[in-house]
Write a structure and sequence with these properties.
The chain has 21 helices and two strands. It is mostly helical and 482 residues long. A two-stranded antiparallel sheet has the order 1-2. Strand 1 and strand 2 form a beta hairpin. The longest helix is centred in the middle third of the chain and has 26 residues. It starts with a helix and ends with a helix.
Length: 482
């Protein structure tokens, strides 16, 4: 393993991130709030640590191997989560402990949206901006990771796209060079963010809120500058803008790349994953609205407005709120929560298992039923009219089985802290699927759970964001053998 190259990359990463602390400093100066010194100190510490990593090995030039790639990918999120926690600890308000600050930072970087903070309306503007900015940076990192990096390591949801389409062949690289790919994705991501911010501003948000919520919407993060989240604005127009951009951001960014390059949107409707996502959302939206109306929770107009918004927010794993879905009647809280398990499309900022995996699991189940009737038949699984290799289907089932085992283990760990079953089950699901809000005691925030539970859930966040195997491979003895 090329340790020197790994330290060189991490050092550069920290120094670059220290520059990303300049925008919150500018915001602090504009609003004259109390967090200015905290951000300046965090910038100095982060840059100094990065320089200490980088300077001794700055002249090292070696090619990264696949094994190095796994280490760099995992360390990328861990190092940034630690450095990202500094402002939360150093600022007088909120002045979090390390466990709380790391949880908040990891939630931001992984675009989970789970928070330990309350009283957001009273926090310094620069801290509010910083939380949203973390999610935006994390969302871009996820896109580059999912579309450009993980396929080079031979893992990740985008690997499944080698068998997908009609539409563009979404291979491991959209352009011949990874730097060109990353640059193109940055342009698309930035364009979506600006468009979303303009939409929010026109719909009635202040300039500050529009920018902050655009950050967390396009990143599918769910952080807000207000305790009441999007519900603070009580605006159907703002909610409509949010719904549109949450859905767009849950699509595979390779599709956005194709639309940008070829000036066409036809391929969206030809994509099996997009069709599945929209179909499932439409069906569950109808069930949600009808249930809210028949149980006299809202009138018809409000049932449509709140029902569709909450469904899209949970289904795309964003986590914005206009009402408390956890107290809705009968099965609705669990129906919406289970939507997050499917999550967004592969190569999007969404969390969850990813739509394409759920689709392949469904098709495999259907094939097994047909085999019971026709045991000698050869029945290929098809996506977009093309057969899917059985090895890919096996990989999906392998991913799903490990996902379930880890889910149960972490759920048991939370139960051991004294948490009730619904809270433990939903907390693990919300963090592992990068959703954010859970049910019962973790519906509003995670500030009241134990530090041990926060560390478990922080692990769940990075596990879900790195698609499990990227992280787990580091715990295998074979990985560390020469």
């Amino acid at each position: 393993m090329h340790t020197a190259i790994i330290f060189r990359i991490l050092g550069l990463l920290l120094m670059v991130f220290s520059i990303a602390l300049l925008p919150p400093i500018v915001v602090s100066l504009i609003y004259q709030d109390s967090a200015l010194q905290a951000f300046i100190s965090a910038l100095a510490i982060t840059f100094a640590v990065g320089a200490a990593f980088w300077l001794p090995v700055r002249h090292k030039r070696q090619e990264l191997r696949t094994r190095d790639g796994f280490v760099v990918t995992v360390m990328f999120w861990l190092v940034l989560a630690v450095s990202g926690s500094l402002p939360f600890m150093l600022a007088e308000n909120p002045g979090l402990s390390f466990a709380d600050a790391f949880f908040e930072s990891m939630s931001g970087w992984t675009t989970t949206g789970a928070t330990v903070l309350t009283g957001l309306d009273n926090l310094p503007q620069s801290i509010l901006f910083y939380r949203q900015f973390l999610q935006w940076l994390g969302g871009m990192g996820i896109i580059v990771l999912a579309v450009a990096i993980l396929p080079m390591l031979g893992i990740g949801g985008m690997q499944l796209y080698r068998t997908e389409t009609p539409g563009p062949m979404k291979d491991s690289k959209l352009t011949p060079r990874i730097t060109e790919t990353a640059k193109a994705l940055w342009y698309i991501y930035l364009t979506l963010t600006i468009s979303c911010a303009v939409g929010y501003w026109i719909a009635g948000m202040s300039f500050f809120d529009a920018i902050c919520h655009a950050f967390s919407t396009v990143a599918i993060g769910g952080f807000s500058t207000h305790d009441a989240s999007i519900g603070h604005f009580n605006s159907g127009l703002i909610e409509s803008v949010a719904i549109f951009f949450m859905i767009i951001s849950a699509f595979n960014f390779a599709l956005h790349f194709y639309a940008w390059r070829y000036r066409s949107i036809k391929h969206y409707f030809a994509d099996a994953e997009v069709r599945t996502l929209l179909t499932v959302i439409a069906i569950v939206a109808a069930i949600t609205v009808v249930t809210l109306i028949t149980n006299d929770v809202y009138n018809t107009a409000d049932a449509i407005r709140f029902g569709i918004f909450e469904l899209v927010s949970i289904a795309t794993t964003t986590g914005f709120a206009t009402s408390d879905f956890s107290i809705w009647p009968i099965f609705l809280p669990f129906l919406l929560f289970f939507m997050a398990f499917m999550g967004g499309c592969a190569g999007s900022t969404g969390g969850g298992l990813k739509v394409i995996r759920v689709l392949l699991i469904y098709k495999q189940g259907s094939r097994e039923l047909k085999r019971l009737i026709h045991p000698n038949a050869i029945i290929p699984i098809r996506l977009g009219g093309r057969p899917v290799d059985d090895r890919i289907v096996e990989a999906v089932w392998g991913f799903f089985s490990v996902y379930l085992m880890l889910y149960m283990i972490m759920c048991l760990l939370l139960l051991a802290t004294g948490m009730d079953f619904v809270s433990a089950f939903s907390a693990v699901g919300a963090c592992m699927n990068n959703l954010g809000p859970g049910l019962n005691s973790v519906a509003a925030h995670y500030g009241d759970i134990t530090d041990f539970a926060k560390w478990v859930l922080s692990f769940a966040m990075i596990l879900g964001r790195l698609e499990i195997f990227t992280l787990l491979v580091l715990f295998t003895p074979a990985f560390w053998r020469q």
